[in-house]
Amino acid sequence: MAEDYRFPFRMYSAKGTGTVTEGYHDKAVEIVEVISGSFDFQIGTETVEAEPGDFLYIPSALVFRASAPRGEASLRAMVFDSDIIEANMENFDTEIFYMFYIQSRNRTTVFKEGHPIYATLKSCMSEAYDEYIAKDVCYKLPIRANIYLIMTALLRYYCGTKDELDRMIYHNVMRLRPVIEHISEHCGEKIYIESLADMITVSPDYFTKMFKDSIGKTPIDYINAVRVNQALRLLSMTDTPVNEIAELIVDTVCSARKMIRVAGDDYPAEVVKSRFMKLDSSHVQYVMDCMRDNTTYVRNIKKYLLAALYNAPVTIGNYYSSLVQHDMYGDGQRGRG
């Protein structure tokens, strides 16, 4: 996304109806300003409305979509790599940045006129955009300065330490860090509250309350949100419309059932979820290729897709090998008179 690896930054504007912009940034973050019309923003698992003049912060590693269902709307956005900020932080500041990362992923805020940091967002976005368009001598310096001002305002808003409650939340989020990282790494597996509580040596009841008070979601809701975000990230890696696949993956990884039926057989839900969470864009594309090439009437598309996705890691190799064989040797008539 960056035009200069030493300064990973860009700005863009977009307008239209329906889906106006969407994406996923592995490391970058995005500041969006609504210029005209109204938008519905889906950021991860949350959906919020935004009107002209509103600002939103989109964290890294969350799939997002800005839709204009009520008529034409326009926006502009600033996208920059979080390394710009982290590279200039001391150890304590990086802890604050981690706190901000967790809080912002679980609390989507629409910054409207009158909000304490609104004036900073407004002036810094305007100055950065003007500099980016003009590209005058040393234009990157004032842009970087405005990024620092915006991030300082956001960090202070999300991670204020003005009272005892704020300090307690900060302490608890840092204490929960190994738990949060464990959930991210093992979200496709069965996760027990008791095991998570043991990681920080507290009782399950205390852990659940501590997690909810600090993160803003119960552990179960947070785990499900991570699973959904993983599924959305997977689907964002293909340009083909995949509404049915998206709905099916989300339903499967969030299922509360103990058993899931695939192709007429019942499997433990955690086995199915684990396999789904290991899918990548090549598997999704493979399933879509199979659907396109299939000439047999499919009576139940949901069951077909569920079986195809579950078996994709096993069958994808043979499928593409056969295509290569066909391309190289034709339809099997090679060598025949």
| CATH homologous superfamily title of the largest domain | Jelly Rolls
Sheet/helix structural class: alpha+beta
CATH architecture of the largest domain: Sandwich
What summary fits the major beta sheet?
7 strands, antiparallel
| Number of beta-strand segments | 9
Helical percentage? 40-55%
> Under the CATH scheme, which class of the largest domain?
Mainly Beta
Tally of alpha and pi helices: 13
| End-to-end separation | 55 Å
In percent, how much strand structure appears in the residues?
A: 15-25%
Quote the CATH topology of the largest domain.
Jelly Rolls
Written description of the protein model:
The chain has helices spanning 83-86, 91-106, 118-134, 140-158, 164-175, 177-185, 193-199, 204-215, 219-236, 243-253, 269-277, 281-293, 301-329; strands at 9-23, 28-36, 39-43, 46-50, 55-58, 64-81, 110-111, 259-262, 265-268. Residues 1-6 and 323-337 have low confidence and may be disordered. The chain contains 13 helices and nine strands. The longest helix has 29 residues, at 301-329. It is 52% helix and 20% strand. The strands form two sheets. Strands 1, 2, 3, 4, 5, 6 and 7 form a seven-stranded antiparallel beta sheet that branches. Helix 5 packs across helix 8 (204-215), helix 9 (219-236) packs antiparallel against helix 10 (243-253) and helix 12 (281-293) packs across helix 13 (301-329). It is α+β, with helices and mostly antiparallel strands. It folds into three domains: 9-158, Sandwich (Jelly Rolls); 164-225, Orthogonal Bundle (Arc Repressor Mutant, subunit A); 245-328, no CATH class.
